[in-house]
Amino acid sequence: MTPYVATSLDLDDWRVQQLGVESPQAIDGLQSRHEVLGIAAAGPRVLVSLQTTWSIDHQAFGILPNDVCVETTTVEALVFSLCDGSSLEVPRPAVNNVRPRYFVSNSGGPFSEVEPPTGVRGHSIVGFDDGFADVDSTTGQVWVSVDAQTWRKAGSPEDENRFVVLAVGPLEDALVIEPKTSGWTTALVDIDGTTGQGELPITLDPATVWTAPEVATGPAGSAIFITTARPWERVDVTPGWAVDTGRWIVSRLPDSGLINARSADGAASHRFIESADHVTIDDAGTVLLRLPGESGEIIEVTVQQITDSRQTTSSQRDAKAQVFFSPDGETWRLLWQSAEDSWFGSVAVGDDEVLISGASLSSRSFAVALDGSP
Questions:
Q1: What is the rounded end-to-end Cα distance, in angstroms, of the chain?
Q2: Strand, helix or coil for residue 304
Q3: 271 and 262 in contact (C-beta within 8 Å)?
Q4: Which residue, 39, 85, 328, 337, has fewest beta-carbon neighbours within 10 Å?
Q5: CA distance 305 to 249
Q6: Are 43 and 86 in contact (CB under 8 A)?
Q7: How far is the C-alpha of 36 from the C-alpha of 52, rounded, in Å?
Q8: Handedness of CA 44, 145, 265, 113 (dihedral sign)
Q9: Which of 202-206, 220-224, 296-300 has the highest mean pLDDT?
Q10: What pLDDT digit, counting tens, does each position of 164-221 carry?
Q11: Do 165 and 223 meet the contact criterion of CB atoms below 8 Å apart?
């Protein structure tokens, strides 16, 4: 189904229209759908990012999910290494690649397709007063545009940084958060360049943060929720782990026989059944994953890497989650912190308080006053 998008210039009258994109190509054995990755508005313009996703139809091949020991996804094909030693390869359509497709509407008019900036994944587009911004999720490079058609780079990360986070700033500009080992920096960016810079009062290695920080802006300013808790290491289940080897991001879910390995550039991913022949765990606990195919590349995850990934190297090592607040996007202060596991937190900013949600698996939302009162 091709997605429908509703747009409005005054929040009273809405126009619902279908994106002018062809139906996904029919491929025997594959199920396909168009997925909206992000949507943003800037003035009278609305920008939508879209990508076509594909998954195997097991019934079409007469197999069950348990028959697959390794599932590999690349730009070119889906490859299923079956537990009986055979393999099944399904080519992906040439039009389906890692780049999203962008569609823009002006003043409620019909959507037309435009070229996205180089490298972006389309998940983090934001609309601010002067235009749009997006970030390359591999390098951390930020792009800005007035009309979503002509893009230019806004600054440049010191090193490739897949942790860079984008949000709308307090002055209707783009708020860029770049976690670095030398210190977390923030920048305010408009269509003409950087308008302000700041630093978060935090000494936290980005490698200890696996859940992207949540950022919100409201009348009083901006707030950031940062957590080092790992959902896969819940104490009520067999702990999982996640290790960034540099080239591969490898994770094992709790109470699961599945191990996932995704290349850092996002071009390939593999899902292993732990009991498969492609997986070896030696007596020391080192995990060896043998990639299917002729290369037979081995991905190694050592016990030390697993142990290191569970450690917080911050001076605030007892704080599982922290919320920082800034009235201007430049000067930040610690507003709240928790010593308990905080999983998928989010924040909302009002006139004089910040609402914190999801601070633990069972807690309710609560407000923290900006003036320090209870």
A1: 50
A2: helix
A3: no
A4: 85
A5: 12
A6: no
A7: 9
A8: positive
A9: 220-224
A10: 888 888 878 899 998 888 889 999 988 887 788 999 998 887 877 777 788 999 999 9
A11: no
Angle ∠(294,300,203) on CA atoms, nearest 5: 135
| Reported confidence tier of residue 82, pLDDT bands at 50, 70, 90 | confident
Tokens of 236: 């009520």
User: Which alpha helices (DSSP H) does the chain contain, by range?
Assistant: 303-309
> Residues 99-127: pLDDT tens digits?
788 999 999 899 999 999 887 877 889 99
Length of the chain: 374
Burial of 348 (0-12, 13-18, 19+ CB in 10 A): middle
Nearest Cα neighbor of 126 from 85, 154, 97 is: 154
**Residues near 74 by Cβ (< 8 Å), separated by ≥ 6?**
92, 267, 268
Lowest mean pLDDT among 10-24, 38-52, 251-265, 315-329: 315-329
Dihedral in degrees, nearest 10, Cα atoms 255, 259, 264, 266:
-100
The two structure tokens encoding residue 29? 């054995």
Greatest Cα-to-Cα distance within the chain, rounded to the nearest angstrom: 66
Long-range contact list for 272-281, CB < 8 A, 24+ apart? 272/69, 272/70, 273/68, 273/69, 273/70, 273/83, 276/69, 276/70, 276/81, 276/83, 277/69, 278/69, 278/70, 278/81
